[in-house]
Amino acid sequence: MNTRQLLTLSVLLGFAIAFLKFQYFSEPNTTPQLPTLDNATESGELHIVPEPDAMEILPAFTLPSTGVGLQPVTIAKRRTTLLFPNGEEVSVMLNAYWPPAPPGWFSYEATILSQIDKLRTQAEAGDMAAARTIYRVLSNCRRLLNSGVDLEGALNEIKSSNRSSTSKIALQEGVREGYHACEGVTEDHVRQGEHWLRLSVEGGDYLATRMLYQILDDRNDPEARMLLSKMWEEGHIGSLHSYAIKYRNEKNHISAYAYFLAYSTTRERVFELSVYPERHQISIQGNSNTLAVMSSYLSYEEQLQAEKLAVTIVEENKNCCRGFFNLSPP
Hints:
It is built from 13 helices and 3 strands; from the N terminus they run αββααααααααααααβ. The protein has helices at 3-26, 116-124, 128-147, 151-159, 165-181, 187-191, 193-202, 206-218, 223-233, 238-249, 253-272, 281-295, 300-315; strands at 73-83, 89-98, 322-323.
């Protein structure tokens, strides 16, 4: 393939994956794949992959179909103790919850434009999940518009790619459904997406806040740090991961290590208390590998300082810790 074909394929694959992820992400009864961490490149340079917006709701939990959900659904709360490498302990309340889901009537089999007016009406009435849904579907359609390739061309691009047969079938399915859903969407529609995302953020929706943070962070917009601070003030564990990435990129290795240690320590305790703890071993090992690489940038004294800072980060946040996870009964 030439450079232009590779770029086109990249856009199409991103579109297919994003569309499939949107469907899976919005369905409460699915079993997501656990995130993995790409801990270091061949050169040894640290690379922290941004935490995916994956929900760790396992089959043991089923969210009732209630139509429009305006508020997060708390699944369980459980007080536990986090043990840090330096021997210090911090007591936290784990708050497992489910964010407001897209309207129950929303269908992936119908076109987006045939449903967007109803979504707008609900968003304007205060349904932050509907507002978030408008942004997400339109942002996925942007990938299609950027590709400049029709459906047949897209399917052929994937067919000729160097991927497994199973992967090709899944991606082609995502492309077919995505092209149908995005039928009639124009650049004017896409440009409206961020307005609805911000409306959802103003309504206090965490997922929307995280999406907007990622957009603004890519633009190096100062507002991104304000949103990140807001997410951590509310106790969302994922924001610790984002802080680690930000400080790593700023070459602040002490803070990067501290925030990732706070994140991994909290997540590993969540994993231990989850319904199926054995499913999380890959993630736990990935966190350990990442910390090992990060520590190579620190002196012994700096690592001790970072470990102390990690304790302080969690200890001083009385809202810690919230996230999408399924805790086993006490």
